């Protein structure tokens, strides 16, 4: 016995039913099946008016040309059904043909509008993806002795880019990593993302000490907000959404090749150090406000220190990870989950985390997600600790 359900499932999984030729054949088959049923049922059943279903449904999935192909099949089927039912000489037959023609014309027009919208959306997504690649430079697979991987997921899937950010620089025997989260999300936050990233990269190029890096980025951020506020009103588009109260949470980590770490945390979720089945949150000893709100802290940011032992992994992330919820509203238990994956390489770790986060949240993300993982090799060279 043929398992139609299994065949259909396999076809959907393979994407065969998405092929234009398969779709056109399916919609052309509809009026043919209706005609066959009409001829077999006799004159008591008249299915001619239903022939319009073929081009109507085709407009949802197919191009205007394909809709016309379906119409070229549906129109003769309607005429044949009317002849079999002896309706050719009735007053209703011209009305039926006119109705079929009008609905088909509307279907072709609707298909054209849909195709045009899809092309505009595809162009917008392409621009957004290029913009993301320009702002968030792809991180190298290695930075000195450290293996590196990154992951970015925008909550606004149509935009493909949002308000989370990360960057990595290498100077001498030191690696610096930044991860941050701009207040708000979507395309409206791109200018602030660019400002923070440019500030971080500028400090790296000029070998600015870590403690001063936060101040330089803060100054660049405030200047950007002032320029945006001066150029736009509070309701004059996306840029106008940023005000003097706008902020960016961020963590800047400086990693020496021997595993010594220095961190500046500006109101961001603490990085996690993964090592031999244990997970340690590297929280700040003194809480510091985010970028943009630095005047609330007269003492300025604080540099914390930690050690990254051989074979350990440093995981940096944004709150889109820990604030993802399941169907019952419970937050994603990141530290509990990654405890089982401490020995994975960075790419495998983020891939596993991504799949687990999608399953946990039901593939629904309420906020942008960014993650960066760096792993120190288990075997160290001479002179390293």
Task: Describe the 3D structure.
The chain has 385 residues and is of the alpha+beta class. The protein has 10 helices and 11 strands. Strands 1-2-11-10-7-8 form a 6-stranded antiparallel β-sheet. It has a 5-stranded antiparallel β-sheet with strand order 3-4-5-6-9, covered by helices on one side.
Give a count of the beta strands, DSSP E runs of length 2 or more: 11
In what range is the share of β-strand residues? 15-25%
Low-confidence stretches: 1-14, 234-240
Overall SS class:
alpha+beta
Strand order of the largest sheet: 1-2-11-10-7-8
Query: Helix and strand succession?
Result: HHHHHEEEEHHEEEEEEHHHE
State the shape: elongated
Helicity, as a percent range: 40-55%
Span between termini: 67 Å
- Major sheet description: 6 strands, antiparallel
Note the total helix count: 10
Radius of gyration: 30 Å
Overall mean pLDDT stands at 82
Can you tag this structure with a few keywords?
single chain, 385 residues, alpha+beta, six-stranded antiparallel β-sheet, five-stranded antiparallel β-sheet, 11 strands, elongated
Sequence-ordered SSE layout with sheet pairings:
Layout: H1 4-14, H2 20-41, H3 53-61, H4 64-84, H5 92-135, E1 142-143, E2 146-153, E3 164-171, E4 174-182, H6 190-205, H7 210-231, E5 248-256, E6 260-266, E7 272-275, E8 278-281, E9 303-307, E10 313-317, H8 319-322, H9 334-338, H10 346-361, E11 369-375
Antiparallel strand pairs: 1-2, 2-11, 3-4, 4-5, 5-6, 6-9, 7-8, 7-10, 10-11
Helix pairs in contact: 2-3, 2-4, 3-4, 3-5, 4-5, 6-7
């Amino acid at each position: 016995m043929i398992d139609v359900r299994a065949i259909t499932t396999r076809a959907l999984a393979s994407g065969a039913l998405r092929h234009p030729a398969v779709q056109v054949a399916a919609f052309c088959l509809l009026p043919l099946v209706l005609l066959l049923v009409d001829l077999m049922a006799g004159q008591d059943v008249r299915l001619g008016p239903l022939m319009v279903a073929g081009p109507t449904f085709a407009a949802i999935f197919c191009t205007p040309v394909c809709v016309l192909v379906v119409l070229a099949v549906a129109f003769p089927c309607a005429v044949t059904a009317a002849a079999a039912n002896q309706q050719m000489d009735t007053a209703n037959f011209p009305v039926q043909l006119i109705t079929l023609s009008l609905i088909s014309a509307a279907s072709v027009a609707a298909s054209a509008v849909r195709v045009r919208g899809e092309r505009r959306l595809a162009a917008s997504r392409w621009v957004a993806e290029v913009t993301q690649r320009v702002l968030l430079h792809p991180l190298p697979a290695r930075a000195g002795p450290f293996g590196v991987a990154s992951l970015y997921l925008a909550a606004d899937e149509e935009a493909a880019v949002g308000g989370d950010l990360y960057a990595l620089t290498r100077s001498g025997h030191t690696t610096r990593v930044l991860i941050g989260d701009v207040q708000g999300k979507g395309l409206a936050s791109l200018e602030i993302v660019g400002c923070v990233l440019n500030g971080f990269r500028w400090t790296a190029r000029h070998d600015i000490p870590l403690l001063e890096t936060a101040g330089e980025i803060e100054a660049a951020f405030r200047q950007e907000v002032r320029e945006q506020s001066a150029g736009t009103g509070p309701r004059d588009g996306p840029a106008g959404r940023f005000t003097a109260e706008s902020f960016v949470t961020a963590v800047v980590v400086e990693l020496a090749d021997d595993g010594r770490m220095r961190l500046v945390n500006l109101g961001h979720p603490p990085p996690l150090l993964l090592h031999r089945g244990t997970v340690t949150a590297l929280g700040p000893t003194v809480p510091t406000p985010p970028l943009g709100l630095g005047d609330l802290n007269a003492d300025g940011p604080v540099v914390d220190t930690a050690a990254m032992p051989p074979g350990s992994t440093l995981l940096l992330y944004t709150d889109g990870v820990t604030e993802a919820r399941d169907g019952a509203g419970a937050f994603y238990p990141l530290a509990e989950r990654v405890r089982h994956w401490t020995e994975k390489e960075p790419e495998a770790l983020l891939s596993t985390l991504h799949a687990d986060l999608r399953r946990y949240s039901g593939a629904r993300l309420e906020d942008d997600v960014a993650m960066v993982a760096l792993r120190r090799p288990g075997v160290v060279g001479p002179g390293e600790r």
